[in-house]
Amino acid sequence: MNNKILLLLALLGISVGAYAQVPPVVEATNRSIRSTSLTQKFLSPTRIVWKSDNIGSRVLNAERILNSGIGQADLNRGEYLTLVNEKEGQAGILLDFGCEIQGGIEIVTTRNNQKPAGRVRIRFGESVSEAMSDAGVDGATNDHAMRDFVVELPWLGRLSVGESGFRFVRIDLVDADAKLEIKEISAAFRYRDIPYLGSFTCNDERLNKIWMTGAYTVHLNMQDYLWDGVKRDRLVWVGDLHPEVMTVNSVFGDNEVVPKSLDLARDLTPLPNWMNGISSYSMWWVILHRDWYYYQGNIDYLKEQKEYLTALLKHLSTKIDDNGKEILDGNRFLDWPSSENQEAVHAGLQSMMVMTFEAGADLCRVLGDEKTVSLCDASVARLKKHVPSMADSKQAAALLAMSGLVKPEQANSQVLAKDGAHKMSTFYGYYMLIARAMAGDYQGAIDNIRNYWGTMLDLGATTFWEDFDIDWAKNAGRIDELVPAGKVDIHKTYGGYCYEQFRHSFCHGWASGPTSWLSQYVLGVNILEPGGRKVLLDPDLGDLEWVKGTFPTPRGVIEIEHRKNSKGKVETTFRAPAGVEVVVAKK
């Protein structure tokens, strides 16, 4: 047997028996081989949202396309979806696949077609209106992923094409006086086939849906790397990773996509550069490693970060002036809604410097680097000499509270508890929730979750969005229907900065904060020792009657239930795996 072929098969992980005959896969075995952990499955459409005509002259046998497909062309003749372009109009159909997915589309044609079968225009959409839009108009783009393009279909064959985030697909027959018969249309769903080890259920179904939607939003973004969005921002944005990683910790547990993404950011960013060009994102990298280590407890992986980690902390220590004020350069950024309030940005960066050096001290103490621990402690002491204003910003108030520069009760009463869900953001909303919990205002945080993230669900969302303003919901149509006359098209009308109108991502992992927040503060799971060796259960149910769920640790899943008795006191039961010590808070 050809030794080159055997070597290649070994690299591919394919075992070959001593007498087996194998095909000549390839002669060149020195090429790089890239594998993927993704699974692909095919989904049939759940409904037809729109047809270009309703009298059966241009779109025939439309309902047949809802049948489950097998992905194989055959020689049978029958009644299949048929698109006909007549002189007076173009044939098209808009399909709904039931929920947001990441992947492409598969189209199978019949024998009753020309050779080739014809050209179709395919438009993916996270909303119905986006699938009906034109690239280059109203913010619709092909940035990061092609979502509006023309392809030619084979006669009696199959074509798989596309790679985007979508729920809806519009298909139009392109050529004049043409006819096309289609046997099957399926969505090619590409994802990590991993179990949801964490869970959350309570007596409020709205909160249950929010928890799961946040988990699913991150799951879609767990591709070969941990992305920010599956339609747009299919990139590793380090700051945006933090809410996502906390959701991974709470739902999926240890997964290769997190260290792989953190390492990519490190390797792409030689010091003194900032990750993604943003100083706060390099700080988030330190905080991420602290949180990942405490939840997963992988000391060998932490040791791999020591050289870069200590050099980064040393570099950050040079960005403090004599008065203890941060003087960070690079792109000074927290999130988009706060970006125009430079006073708030400074307050947030000052807070993040404190949080970063505290996280750095924790990690370096584990690594036995007392010199860097002393550097971190001294930096925190210097930074605490300067306490910025909250600048009427919920982003700034949240970080100031989390860093200890401002008392959480003060941040909550003066800023966070005001105006309900107004002035929240999908990214920093997570930290607003944390700060409210630190202030003891669990009920206020739960109400924010119901109103802010719940309103996206009311509008038809199956994943959480890049940004959302509660005022957008006024007189807005749902995203899963053609916008009725007199209603506002929320996708076409709103969005700002880099995500105007249809460019706005409706599946953004940084918006998943309620999932990990509900697991930590309502289910009550707090990690006390690395790797979940010791866990504190400290729930606050607010107005809920009961909550139960599971939480993944490297040693297994903890099963938890809390119920209020007749006197309103919470009674806790749990089952923990061997090696996990569980402590229940006394209240």
UniProtKB/TrEMBL annotation:
Residues 524-584 form the Alpha-L-rhamnosidase C-terminal domain. Residues 1-20 form the signal peptide. Keywords: Signal. Residues 197-522 form the Alpha-L-rhamnosidase six-hairpin glycosidase domain. Pfam families: Bac_rhamnosid6H, Bac_rhamnosid_C. GO terms for biological process: carbohydrate metabolic process. It comes from the Bacteria. This is Alpha-L-rhamnosidase. It comes from Mariniphaga anaerophila. The lineage of its organism: Bacteria, Pseudomonadati, Bacteroidota, Bacteroidia, Marinilabiliales.
